[in-house]
Amino acid sequence: MQTQKQTNLGKVFLAVALLTLSIFSISFVSATGEFWACFTDGDTIDYCSSNIPDRFCSSDICKYCMKTYDENNDCYSPGSFSICTGTATNSCTGGTTGSGNDQNAPIINLNSPLNGSVYTDRSVMFSLNTNEISDVYYLDLINGRGRWTRVCTDCSSYSKRRSFKEGFNSLQIRATDVAGNEAFRNVDFFIDSKNPQITKTEPKKGFANGDFMVQFKELNPRNLTLNYGNFIQGFRTAQINLSICVDVRGKVTCETSVNLASFDGQTIEYWFSLKDVANNVKDSKHIFLQVDTTFPEFDNVVVTVDDSKGIFNIQTSEPVTLEYIDFGESRPSWRRLCSDCASYTRSKTFRDGMHLLNLQATDEAGNSVGTALNFTI
User: Fold this and answer.
1) pLDDT digits over 217-273, tens only?
2) Order of strands, edge to edge, in the sheet holding 251-257?
3) CA 37, 39, 43: angle at the middle one, nearest 5?
4) Would the pTM count as exceeding 0.85?
5) What number does CATH give the domain 298-376?
6) Domain 108-191 homologous superfamily, CATH
7) Which residues does 119 contact at the CB level (< 8 Å), separation at least 6?
8) What does 285-296 look like in DSSP terms, one character per residue?
9) Whole-number Å distance between alpha carbons of 325 and 103
10) Which of 127, 262, 335, 365 could form an S-S bond across to 159 if both were Cys, CB 3.0 to 4.6 Å?
11) What is the assigned CATH class of domain 197-291?
12) Would you give the end-to-end CA distance of the chain in angstroms?
């Protein structure tokens, strides 16, 4: 009888043990099986494996199938989606739930290009970092036509060379985090990758009277100077106002005048120096000229009338080019009498009526003197 009781008691203990083991087994499977982890807008989903990129929730709620959760490292191991959809409950057993709380825009730290800088290469290092994962774009405010150019997505740093247009550049940079918060940063800079070119200077030969001209090609000129003089009187410089220069299809023409009276009768050397915004300097060819600042003079000017002709008798102090304009004509225009002449005696035919002439004598250096004549045919 006692043996029978002991047997029954053993069966009870065995049943309890099996039930306990079954409950423990069910609990173990539940703790280590697939489950849904839910996250809210702006949350980061950190994976324990470095081979799996972290994710970010950008909606009100995000559900991910997970296998395990490492509480010490606060990271997840992904589970099998088919198991989650087949056996796991639809309720969230991990992650965080609730409304998003990321209302702060990312901070953009721009390392290059630097605001106000000048670069001598069209390929510029574009380098930045943000304090959180963001999508980064830039808008060319001058040449972009309102279109944003992608820099990088899901990034917190970027460093690579990018090509920009010659001249002034103005960019607006935009960084958008996973919560949709936007930050903007503007930067202006110059690109001057081409050395300045001086294509023409005048006078090229002969005499100088103080009038000079230069023509150059340069998008970003900063400084233009005329250098002139000799070792007897010394050398001088004249700053040229770039605002009065004329730009025709990329060719810029500047004119200036200096007083060469102290060099009259001597030989001078002159050249132009052009500097761009990148501090590149170009000098024109050095030219040597004889200085003539003395104006020619009329020693004799007589006009006699013979029928329909006017007979000129003109003498000047040096060889000149003689020209006249007749304001008695319906369409006055300059007419040449002679070139490189110190005297002129010849007749010209005129129409009937009164004639009002402006006679001009110009020497080789460009010095010019005029006088008025009037007669009636």
Assistant:
1) 998 899 999 999 999 999 999 999 999 999 999 899 999 999 999 999 999 999 999
2) 197-202, 211-217, 251-257, 246-248
3) 135
4) no
5) 2.60.40.10
6) Immunoglobulins (2.60.40.10)
7) 113, 189, 190, 191, 192, 193, 278
8) PPEEEEE--PPP
9) 81
10) 127
11) mainly beta
12) 170
